[in-house]
Design a protein that fits this description.
By secondary structure, the chain is α/β, with parallel strands linked by helices. The chain has two domains: 146 residues, Endonuclease, Chain A (2-Layer Sandwich), CATH 3.30.870.10; 103 residues, no CATH class. Helices cover 31% and strands 22% of the residues. It has a seven-stranded mixed beta sheet with strand order 1-8-7-6-2-3-4, with helices on both faces. Helix 1 packs parallel to helix 2 and helix 6 packs parallel to helix 7. It is globular, with a radius of gyration of 19 Å. It starts with a strand and ends in a 9-residue tail after the last strand. The C terminus is likely disordered.
Length: 269
Amino acid sequence: MSRSLIVLPDDSAEPLLKLIREAKQSLRIKMFALSDPEILRTLIRAHGRGVKIRVMLNPARRSGEIQNSGSRQVLRDAGIDVLDGNPVFEVTHEKSMVCDDTTAVIGSANWEPDSFEETRDFAVVTRDAAEVREIIECFEADWSRRPFEPPKSSNLIWSPGLSRVRIGEFIDSAKHSLYVQNERYQDAVIVEHLVRAKLRGVKVHVDGAALAFAARREAGGGRGRPADPEGRGHRHPQDPRASSAREDVAGRPVARDCRIDQPGAGQFR
């Protein structure tokens, strides 16, 4: 198989650590937040045995809070090349790694202790040559501050660009059921696609941080507000102020992000 799945927190950081330990030539890492001590130690050891490592980190949250300064300094002190995300984008939200130009990981989890111990996240490991090459091309473009244009036939969904359209098409392709897990549902267009799916008879299952928090609070186990890794605050999806899509309607750059698409996977039976 050219793809496999990492499920967090069940699988822990071990699958990522194993890939870093087994790297022989190069690692390209693009990350919104990186602070896990074991990940940092393993990267430094890989650099020590001659692996060429380049790390691109998001410099600040949308709130303006400076981010990744400690890990950036630790890596640079070890001699590892570290660069801020492409300044064209307000936020670099992508979480990816390419090992030896042959294996890529694209996920939803930040590389922080809580992500490996307490939060539900996923990552796809792909060895598909075209997908790996495309992730490398985007990394090199962002590293060099050049434009990146994904191929029209791509299985990857990139933001900004046609991500809203592609996700909408994926939802529209469902005939029987949709299982949706996301931290927030704040994009009115995507919410409308989900509602339309329900109205045409698709069984839609929706899970998210706000829903899980409400359930915990009702059961007496809630503790504070749900996690907000981007520092944007939580609002009800119907709140007109809750508009924070990865790209705006005019397609202006808002955040670099990537997720993997499986054609036809919306058609569950």
